[in-house]
């Protein structure tokens, strides 16, 4: 990337929304702006998993302000993701489209494990490089992420459904903090954390880092009060807890270093932090300025530099399930060739959509590792339920739908759980995948002729070299069968 450009990462957290902008050029990354707003999205998540109108309004107002700052920034240079609260919300698609409208850029929802990977990446890029294993802990509003990694690579990841907003509602709902509330909150957090102890202890760590608001607030308070310097300790946390209990609440006026915005959710975050120290037997934890938004930023830069972790994820899955790589490449070459012919007419002109088609080509046969019978269903199950680093829920859903739909029945509704134009675009990519598979059924090189594909609305016309199709009776029969399947899905195929 020799040209200077502006890139941005937006983190729609359960407690706060963050945005970071950077100028990139000549191999350098310079942060030029940061914006943070307390939205408390998780505080508006009702028992039935719907979001209150007040929480939705706070989120949209915040993103409209973020969107103003992003005017003029290329959409390809912006990545925005939602975390735990949007993961848990019922039917988030309509709200997701509202969020995208306010921001002016696409918004994705990521899994807890993907959030953990990005948090680790953000921390690893903002702390001094060292040898050995790092433990990174990020206490958010709705979830807490745990990662052990080495260098820039996470080795083991976990995400737990406990956060400072959720625990505030459970244990500190009246705004008061007493010994009993802390005991219950710490016990609940310990029950969550103890489940990951065996796996984490097997890997081990040499130093621990804490990212995001609770960790940084606790460290600032301990320093301001003279209880520690630069490193959080269990003793310092206990002193903070004792002071909060003595005052009966997290009062910013009495706890130097605690902001008024952080105060309402601080006791809950502190309880989670104490439980983590005790269960993992931590000696200390160093606060980190890096977190999810920095991880997003560096992940985006990797994609722009053609170091997209999603490519590695797909390659690893294909190898793990013994995919016939030669056949996958045949199908990919044909599918991408068809895409280039119809990308304008079918509005498929984006690098992302081409990548999605390539990934589907590489993974469409992974279900054969289980059984040839219904292998498209087995393959889609693996795609849907596997941990796929780098993939958002939207990415994974579209990939699932394409693998599920690559043979037999063709049902457009599988693509509906995606915002904007993606349902139509995913459906059309699936058609191209199906045709590429059909044309390469012989699994022989140079089997597919120099053909043309013409698209108009929901009609596709294949043009073969004169006399070719007449010499291929099996291919003709296969295409006739395919035309019948596509017709049931609203697509007309002719030749």
Write a brief structural summary.
The chain is an alpha/beta fold and 495 residues long.
List keywords for this structure.
495 residues; alpha/beta; Nucleotidyltransferase, domain 5; Hypothetical protein af1432; 3 domains; five-stranded mixed sheet; 18 helices; 13 strands
Would you spell out the secondary-structure blueprint of this structure?
Elements lengths: L4 E8 L3 E10 L2 E11 L14 H17 L8 E5 L1 H5 L4 H11 L3 E3 L2 H13 L9 E6 L4 E7 L2 E8 L3 H8 L7 H15 L3 H7 L3 E5 H13 L9 H14 L18 H15 L5 E3 L3 H13 L4 H12 L4 H18 L8 H13 L11 H11 L7 H12 L17 H18 L12 E5 L2 E5 L9 H16 L3 E3 L1
Helix pairs in contact: 1-3, 4-11, 5-10, 6-10, 8-10, 9-10, 13-14, 13-17, 14-16, 14-17, 15-16, 16-17, 17-18
Characterization of the model:
The protein is α/β, with parallel strands linked by helices and 495 residues long. The chain has three domains: 105 residues, Nucleotidyltransferase, domain 5 (2-Layer Sandwich), CATH 3.30.420.40; 162 residues, Exopolyphosphatase. Domain 2 (Nucleotidyltransferase, domain 5, 2-Layer Sandwich), CATH 3.30.420; 139 residues, Orthogonal Bundle (Hypothetical protein af1432), CATH 1.10.3210. The strands form three sheets. The protein has a five-stranded mixed β-sheet with strand order 3-2-1-4-5, with helices on both faces. Strands 8-7-6-9-10 form a five-stranded mixed β-sheet, with helices on both faces.
């Amino acid at each position: 990337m020799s040209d200077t450009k502006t890139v941005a990462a937006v983190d729609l957290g359960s407690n706060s929304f963050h945005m970071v902008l950077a100028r990139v050029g000549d191999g350098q990354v310079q942060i030029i702006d940061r914006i943070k707003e307390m939205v408390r999205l998780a505080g508006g998540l009702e028992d039935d998993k719907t979001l209150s109108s007040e929480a939705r309004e706070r989120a949209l107002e915040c993103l409209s302000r973020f969107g103003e700052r992003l005017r003029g920034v290329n959409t390809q240079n912006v990545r925005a993701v939602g975390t735990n609260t949007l993961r848990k919300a019922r039917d988030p698609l309509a709200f997701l489209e509202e969020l995208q409208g306010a921001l002016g850029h696409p918004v994705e929802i990521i899994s807890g494990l993907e959030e953990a990977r990005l948090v680790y990446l953000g921390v690893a890029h903002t702390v001094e490089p060292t040898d050995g294993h790092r433990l990174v802990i990020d206490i958010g509003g709705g979830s807490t992420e745990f990662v052990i990694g080495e260098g820039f690579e996470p080795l083991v990841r976990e995400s737990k459904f406990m956060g400072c907003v959720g625990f505030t509602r459970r244990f500190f709902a009246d705004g008061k903090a007493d010994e009993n509330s802390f005991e219950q909150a710490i016990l609940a957090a310990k029950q969550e954390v103890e489940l990951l102890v065996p796996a984490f202890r097997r890997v081990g760590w040499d130093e621990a880092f804490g990212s995001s608001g609770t960790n940084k607030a606790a460290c600032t308070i301990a320093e301001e009060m003279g209880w520690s310097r630069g490193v959080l300790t269990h003793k310092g946390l206990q002193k903070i807890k004792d002071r909060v209990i003595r005052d009966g609440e997290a009062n910013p006026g009495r706890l130097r270093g605690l902001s008024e915005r952080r105060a309402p959710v601080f006791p809950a975050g502190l309880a989670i932090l104490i439980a983590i120290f005790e269960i993992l037997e931590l000696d200390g934890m160093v606060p980190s300025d890096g977190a999810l938004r920095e991880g997003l930023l560096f992940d985006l830069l990797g994609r722009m530099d053609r170091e997209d972790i999603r490519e590695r994820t797909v390659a690893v899955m294909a190898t793990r399930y013994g995919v016939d790589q030669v056949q996958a490449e045949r199908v990919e070459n044909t599918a991408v060739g068809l895409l280039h012919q119809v990308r304008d007419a079918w509005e498929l002109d984006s690098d992302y959509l081409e990548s999605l088609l390539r990934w589907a080509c590489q993974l469409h046969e992974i279900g054969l590792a289980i059984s040839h019978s219904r292998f498209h269903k087995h393959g889609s199950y693996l795609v849907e339920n596997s941990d796929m680093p780098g993939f958002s829920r939207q990415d994974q859903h579209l990939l699932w739908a394409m693998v599920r739909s690559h043979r037999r029945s063709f049902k457009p509704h599988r693509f509906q759980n995606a915002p904007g134009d993606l349902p139509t675009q995913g459906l059309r990519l699936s058609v191209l995948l199906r045709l590429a598979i059909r044309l390469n059924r012989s699994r022989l090189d140079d089997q597919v002729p120099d053909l043309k594909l013409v698209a108009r609305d929901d009609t596709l016309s294949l043009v073969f070299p004169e006399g070719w199709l007449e010499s291929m009776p099996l291919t003709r029969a296969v295409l006739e069968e395919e035309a019948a399947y596509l017709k049931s899905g609203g697509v007309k195929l002719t030749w």
